[in-house]
Amino acid sequence: MKDHTQENSWFADFKEFQESVDKPAKDSTNEYLNKHQYASFEACLEAIKPALHEHGFVLLQSNNRDELGDYTETKFVHKTGHELTTKVYLVLDKNNMQGVGSAITYAKRYGILTLAGIEPETKDDDDGNKASLPSGTVNNAAQGAPAKNNSGWPSRSQQ
Question: Structural domain boundaries of the chain?
Answer without folding.
Answer: 7-121
